[in-house]
Amino acid sequence: MKKLINRPEDVVTEALAGMEALHPELLRVDYKNQIIVRADAPVRGKVGIISGGGSGHEPMHGGFVGHGMLDAACPGAVFTSPVPDQMLAATQAVNGGAGVLHVVKNYTGDVLNFEMAAELASAEGIEVESVVTNDDVAVQNSTWTAGRRSRSRARERTCAGRARATSSEPNTSRPCSRP
Question: Strand pairing of 128-133 and 100-105?
Answer without folding.
Answer: parallel
